[in-house]
From TrEMBL:
Pfam family, one: ABC_tran
Protein name as catalogued: ABC-type quaternary amine transporter
Family listed: Belongs to the ABC transporter superfamily.
Keywords for this protein: ATP-binding, Nucleotide-binding, Transport
Keyword Transport: yes
Domain ABC transporter, residue spans: 2-237
InterPro entries: AAA+_ATPase, ABC_transporter-like_ATP-bd, ABC_transporter-like_CS, P-loop_NTPase
UniProt-listed Enzyme Commission number(s): 7.6.2.9
GO molecular function annotations of the record: ABC-type quaternary ammonium compound transporting activity; ATP binding; ATP hydrolysis activity
Superkingdom of the organism of origin: Bacteria
Amino acid sequence: MITFEGVSKRFPDGTVALDDVSLECATGEITVFVGTSGGGKTTALRTVNRMVEPTSGRVLIDGADVRDRPPAELRRGIGYVIQQAGLFPHRTIADNIATVPYLLGEGKKRARARARELMERVGLDPALAGRYPAQLSGGQQQRVGVARALAADPPIMLMDEPFSAVDPVVRGELQAEFLRLQAELHKTIVFVTHDIDEAIKMGDRIAVFRTGGKLVQFDTPKNLLAAPADDFVADFIGYDRGIRRLSFVPAAELELDDRAVLPENASVAEARATGADWVLLTDSGRRPLGWVAVSGLATDRSLQHMPRAPLGHTFNVRADSARAALDAAVLSPSGLAVGVDDDGVVVGVASPLDLTNAIGRESAR
Ligand SMILES: Nc1ncnc2c1ncn2[C@@H]1O[C@H](COP(=O)(O)OP(=O)(O)OP(=O)(O)O)[C@@H](O)[C@H]1O
């Protein structure tokens, strides 16, 4: 556990970067520091490995003051990942990853073998081991940065905007893979970001900082969205926090309707009888095929021959959140989200109204 006890930092020019910050980063969890630019997130992170010394207060790791340990020794147990990866440009990928093992006196052969193993862990092709950083994409470089931080197997990792320098798609992949890795490794992680979506996705707990180095709220993502401590936090989370909260509602709680789900050999008359504007056609195994708009269907033939709009995305009723259902609804030509089970079989559809009701129920809790 990392404990901040009344930590303040005033730089020599008078800037107060941290103002009496107290919080605990639990062992094996991801604690995210989020907030306005200049809010003191990076400064707080750097007090843990003594890159910044507090003016007052203490930082403890498992109860021991970090000031009682020489910085070099302290940092061997703390991985550090920064934006743009911060790789050594003239060293190969393998040598970048093996930096700390080399420093610890590990032989070249063993350190390089470990580097290759770590490359696989973070989703990099070991064939890239002999390349130089400039020969990799931004996303690949970030993975190298993570692998390098993991090389000494430190119990603690400090990550300062580690995925900010890449495009949103790559960032999403890096986030998801890092969460998978963390589920195995259970490191104690402090993660700085200015992106509230990233904070909610990555954090077991989130600390919100505001200008002047004040910690305004420290809570789980779910509680933060449900009960922002003040207007600053509410503003920071955004007016769309109702939508964000859907991430915490399991899709299984949605009431799905299957009246407008028909086999593709059903007739236009059957489609009309549903009273729905759109019907979802399924194959013989009740897997979804696409949508048919009911209005304007003049003939009374099988729906099979009618113009069909694409299915769009589906959501998994067991594994996904209501947020995934919302995304599916927004992207669907019918405005309805199709819920499927693990085998891809249709369970039913959810309308935007069902999703609004889910937000209402979540708010009432
Ligand atoms: N070495 C320094 N000397 C003087 N002021 C500093 C120093 N380092 C940081 N600051 C100031 O301390 C405040 C907090 O900076 P910090 O980098 O911790 O904020 P941050 O929340 O990480 O911001 P960002 O999201 O923009 O990176 C800012 O006003 C910054 O200008």
